[in-house]
Description:
The chain is an all-alpha fold. It has helices at residues 2-33, 38-64.
Amino acid sequence: MIIFAEILHAISIGVLVISSAFYFRHLVKTKKQRKLSTFEFVMYIIIQIAYLLFTISLLISIFVE
């Protein structure tokens, strides 16, 4: 049962990363066309920070274990 939960967790992380990548790409295209709204700009910054933190945590987990 724990393995099933770990698989679901990995799938959910993958879906979140892919969907945020698509939304980030949408925001980049929108930014080129017009000025981003406050909400869009906040999401633009939050997604960049999330990718940075995800990368750092992935590197830590790879090199520490």
